[in-house]
Amino acid sequence: MEYYKKQMSRLIVLLITIMMIMGDQAQAQLDSDFYRESCPSLFPAVRRVVQRAVARERRMAASLLRLFFHDCFVNGCDGSILLDDTSSFVGEKTAGPNNNSVRGFEVIDRIKSRVERLCPGVVSCADILAITARDSVRLLGGPGWSVKLGRRDSTTASLSAANSGVIPPPTSTLNNLINRFRAQGLSQRDLVALSGAHTIGQAKCATFRNRIYNESNIDLTFALSKQSSCPASSGSGDNNQATLDLRSPGRFDLNYYRQLLNHRGLLTSDQVLYNNGSTDSLVVAYSRSLNAFYSDFVRAMVKMGDISPLTGSNGQIRTNCRRPN
Ligand code: HEM
Ligand SMILES: *[C@@H]1O[C@H](CO)[C@@H](O)[C@H](O)[C@H]1NC(C)=O
Ligand SMILES: *[C@@H]1O[C@H](CO)[C@@H](O)[C@H](O)[C@H]1NC(C)=O
Ligand SMILES: *[C@@H]1O[C@H](CO)[C@@H](O)[C@H](O)[C@H]1NC(C)=O
To answer: Ligand 4 atom 13: the closest Cα is on which residue?
Structure first.
């Protein structure tokens, strides 16, 4: 009898342990060591390709960072933005916020084929985007961080989701930005810190035309100088580029916030962050402290990378990032 009781309590302890382990897996946390055994040289392999691409064209770092943002905001960080159209769905590449604007797909392809040679069928395209975003920021002098991994890839993509406004337009009001970020579980602090990504890269005339001709919370000299390469009427000048950060578009610094203080934000969605609203104090804080900006940016990037990942047996590990297996 005593023996039975002992065995019974052992069995119960064992069952509880198993249930706890399974519960853990159901929660499916991402983990920075996810590929430690299955693909030990993943990080240097990715970094080398990003390094080469950015050495050839510095702006590519900005484009790769933006790819990760546009992936995560549409049905989570699942690599869906990388899918080409198929006979069964139209992908996200031609959606309003993406068409003729997101770039860097060839770099992701190069990384993927290198990683496939090293560890076939193991590393997801969604995770490659996350690592690539981190490496891009580092290469332009920004902060580093430990990237959480273990995402799997979607088998489909959604043009309508990408067009639904989940990615806010550059004409957004502050309220719209706050609501769009909140819908993804991101705070006002995350919004202001992540917008600091506009310390690198470029935007097209069509995205800031209304701001430089029609808005009043803009520095006049700045508006006039941007108008010289962005004609008032839409048409031939639509694709003319301007840097989002005036002074140092190739460095991941805090100049983006400084120029907001001077009413020199290029996009409406940039300047609304400093326009007598609830986020002004954050802009001021980041304009004064690289550490404050970096630490909030890093935290927000990790948070953005946590948006609805596919894990466990959901999704797949695509062999080619452009199409489902
Ligand atoms: C807050 C809402 C945001 C809006 C409304 C917005 C809008 C835009 C627009 C309109 C462009 C120019 C696209 C073009 O003309 O081709 C752009 C560029 C860029 N965005 Fe954002 N963005 C936002 C947030 C973010 C976030 C959260 C990130 C990343 C963490 C990001 C990273 C970038 C980068 C790096 C570029 C330059 C890309 C390049 O040069 O190829 N943006 N953004
Ligand atoms: C995307 O851009 C191409 C080339 O400019 C254009 O022909 C096409 O109509 C655009 N697609 C959508 C869905 O807007
Ligand atoms: C300025 O605003 C007016 C009125 O909303 C609009 O008709 C016009 O197209 C705008 N101009 C530019 C360059 O965006
Ligand atoms: C904010 O308010 C101040 C004082 O009322 C005003 O001078 C300024 O033009 C307003 N707008 C911006 C963008 O700071």
So the answer is: 275
Residue 168, annotated as binding a ligand: yes
- Locate the domains of the chain by residue range: 42-167, 174-304
Q: List pLDDT tens digits, range 184-212.
A: 999 999 999 999 999 999 999 999 999 99
Handedness of CA 227, 232, 238, 244 (dihedral sign): positive
Q: What's the confidence (pLDDT) of residue 29?
A: 85
What confidence tens digit (pLDDT) does each residue in 51-108 have? 999 999 999 999 999 999 999 999 999 999 999 999 999 999 999 999 999 999 999 9
What is the longest distance spanned by two Cα atoms in the chain? Answer: 92
Residue 151: HSE in the Cβ half-sphere, 13 Å Cα cutoff = 30
CA 249 to ligand 3 centroid distance, Å: 28
Q: Which amino acid is at 277?
A: G
Considering the candidates 59, 70, 93, 180, report the single residue annotated as catalytic.
70
Neighbours of 152 (CB within 10 A): 22
Residue whose CA is at the smallest distance from ligand 3 atom 3: 214
Distance 174 CA to ligand 4 centre (A): 15
Tokens of 180: 């769009």
| pLDDT of 23 | 45
CB of 275 within 6 A of ligand 4: the answer is yes
Which CATH number is associated with domain 42-167? Answer: 1.10.520.10
For residue 307 and ligand 1, the question of a CB distance below 6 A is answered with no
Q: Which residues of the chain have pLDDT under 50?
A: 21, 23-27
What is the CATH code of the structural domain delimited by 174-304?
1.10.420.10
Residue with tokens 């390469």: 229
What the block records as the tokens of 150 is 């273990």
Whether 276 lines ligand 4, by a CB cut-off of 6 Å, is yes
